[in-house]
Write a structure and sequence with these properties.
Blueprint (H helix, E strand, L loop, with lengths): L2 H19 L1 E7 L3 H15 L2 E7 L5 H8 L4 E6 H11 L3 E9 L3 E3 L14 E5 L2 H13 L4 E2 L12 E3 L5 E5 L4 H4 L5 E4 L1 H6 L10 E2 L7 E7 L6 H10 L2 H11 L4 E2 L2
Parallel strand pairs: 1-2, 1-3, 6-9, 6-10
Antiparallel strand pairs: 3-12, 4-12, 4-13, 5-10, 5-11, 7-8
């Protein structure tokens, strides 16, 4: 065999070995920014031997159930308080392995240009899950719209409201349906990913917006049994790159903030 043939054979063997070594994982995401960011992560991970396939879920409940059941290997859609609540309620053996981005939640209205002109007795929709509903109430508290009991933590409910000067009426809706509720309420607290899907600008359109600092940074989660596997490090390292950070800042223009 000639030297040139040997080199060619070695090159083919190297490519074949790399393809065999590549590992494929399914990652659950919600539509919008989470899915878009993972699309930017995919080619970086591929260079490191990890093939990412995205599975989109339209709500916040199914991705953890699918992960716990082994239908997917990771998900990227939630923050730590939400994950903690799901684990406590459902017994999931799921762990966070890396931080991703922050989506400051906002209050939107089709009827009013500022919070100051929301009428007494106004109807305000908030997410009906404990974590995002609590997050909505904490936002309203921090902006001086209501007061809450001391020590409520991250999951206050409407029963924890101790002072409500405008006598606001809270309407609890599924987080994914919040944009649709805008026609029926005076204002709605909407998560950023659902706001962008509905054509809202999460920087310019909210009449109130959450402080981007705090506990609500999103994360990558995997099953506890998988957290030390090599592909997990490849996934997190591929996400935590300059290229992905630049993509987030350029694509979302402040609506989504890198947290690494």
């Amino acid at each position: 065999m000639s030297f040139r043939s040997i080199v060619a054979f070695a090159s083919v063997l190297t490519l074949w070995s790399a393809s065999v070594a590549a590992e494929t994982i399914k990652i659950g995401v919600t539509p919008g920014p989470h899915a878009q960011i993972l699309e930017a992560v995919k080619p970086i991970a591929a260079k490191n031997g990890l093939d990412i396939q995205l599975v989109e879920f339209s709500d916040y409940v199914v991705p953890n159930a699918a992960l716990d059941a082994g239908d997917i290997q990771a998900n990227s859609f939630q923050n730590q308080p939400y994950l903690d609540n799901q684990k406590a309620d459902r017994g999931y053996k799921i762990e966070a392995v890396g931080l991703t981005v922050n989506f400051p939640i906002g209050v939107y209205s089709k009827k009013y240009k500022s919070w100051a002109v929301i009428p007494d007795g106004g109807k305000i929709s908030i997410p009906n899950d404990p974590t995002n509903g609590g997050r909505a109430l904490l936002l309203l508290r921090d902006k001086g719209a209501i007061k809450l009991k001391d020590g409520v933590g991250f999951k206050p409910t409407v029963l924890d409201v101790t002072d409500n000067p405008k006598k606001l009426k809270f309407v609890e809706v599924d987080a994914a349906q919040a944009p649709r509720a805008l026609d029926d309420v005076d204002a709605a607290v909407i998560n950023t990913n659902y706001a962008t899907q509905a054509g809202l600008d999460p920087v310019k359109d909210p009449i109130l917006r959450e402080d981007p600092k705090g506990p609500y940074v999103n994360l990558i989660a995997v099953r506890a049994a998988d957290k030390d596997k090599p592909w997990v490090k490849i996934l997190v390292d591929s996400y935590h790159t300059v290229e992905v950070k630049e993509f987030v800042l350029t694509k979302f223009k402040g609506a989504v903030l890198p947290s690494w």
